[in-house]
Write a structure and sequence with these properties.
- The protein has a domain at about 1-180 and about 215-240: Rossmann fold.
- Helix content is about 40%, strand content about 20%.
- The protein contains 12 helices and 12 strands.
- It has a 7-stranded parallel sheet, with helices on both faces. A 3-stranded mixed sheet has the order 7-9-11.
- Helix 6 runs parallel beside helix 8.
- It starts with a strand and ends in a 5-residue tail after the last helix.
- The protein binds nicotinamide-adenine-dinucleotide and thymidine-5'-diphosphate (TYD).
Length: about 350
Amino acid sequence: MKEIFVTGGAGFIGSAFIRLVLDEHPGSNIVNFDALTYAGNLENLEGIDDSRHTFIKGDICGRDEVLAAMPDDCEAVFNFAAESHVDRSIHSADEFLRTNIIGTQILLDAAREKNVRRFVQVSTDEVMGSLPDESDEFFTESSPLQPNSPYAASKAAAEFVVRAARETHGVDTVVTRCGNNYGPRQFPEKLIPLMIANAMNDESLPVYGDGKNVRDWIYVDDHCRAIWLAFKKGRSGEAYNIGARNEQYNIDIVKSLLDSLGKPHSLINYVTDRLGHDRRYAIDPAKAETELGWKPLTTWEQGLAKTIDWYRENQDWVNRIRNGEYRSYYKSMYGAALK
Ligand code: NAD
Ligand code: TYD
């Protein structure tokens, strides 16, 4: 059996990745290292095969705990652990710089000490900034890194520390840069689950600005397959842009969620725009397609339907979050109390 070390595996994408590896790659054992911040949730791992999965609660900024948890004969580190929400980073950036930059450096140091074969850094298209509205420009691997939010800046800085570990110490690294993910178990601070949860509760749907910002959406399992392929087939030192060629206006998503849930468009509430709000993200995934042999398997229509079904069937999961720290977050963010 090969040992792999996954950080942030109790979060949205990390838990989907663990499910994928357990289902599709029977030769791997997983150590899942997660601090269980507000976004980490052991319920996200319910029902998985624990004979090949070990959970360790820990902070990637804690050098000793990372070294103690990382297996001695480790095939790969997959670094999902991060502070991941742009709005929270606008409110307060410290934790983003700590986890996303210092934490990544500590993981790289540990990977070097333990002779880990490959370090996979899960990055984001947001490091490349914003594209002009309705242009035919796309993010490619040679687009400059020009992050605009504190979150994106911390992820771009993480890419630089990954690069430095490779250039200075010869650590084998691969970076993936994916667009906006959606799917089951996404924390309801993010657009799609927030809108589904609010609509299900007949609460207003806060759309920033004119609703015409564009994001390039991908079903979470398709992202996870790309990360696995980057580990297996990616060239050392390279970055791979991951996207499903699926640009959508925010307002169109919100309207189609309301239609699917049988709720009125009158629930839409245009609110003050996010500070520094990136206008458009759009990914050219040609390099991942040709070099990794990757392509998305889930259409937007299928993925949205699966996502809506999951939130409908797991209202307890949503309500437990909405009754916790999220209530005060929501109030301070949106100025309105949840029901
Ligand atoms: P998430 O916020 O749902 O989960 C993050 C996880 O990391 C949580 O389980 C949390 O407990 C854990 N964590 C946070 N700080 C930690 C620390 N100091 N030590 C150990 N664990 C810690 O995030 P997500 O949406 O699943 O994103 C996962 C990764 O993918 C992030 O690196 C993010 O930047 C990247 N990414 C996300 C998207 C997206 O659309 N969500 C797109 C591209 C890339
Ligand atoms: P989000 O899910 O926070 O992802 P990101 O900012 O990382 O792309 O937001 C996606 C888009 O939805 C973004 O343009 C901001 C917008 N948005 C709203 O209009 N209202 C909201 O309440 C949220 C959370 C996001």
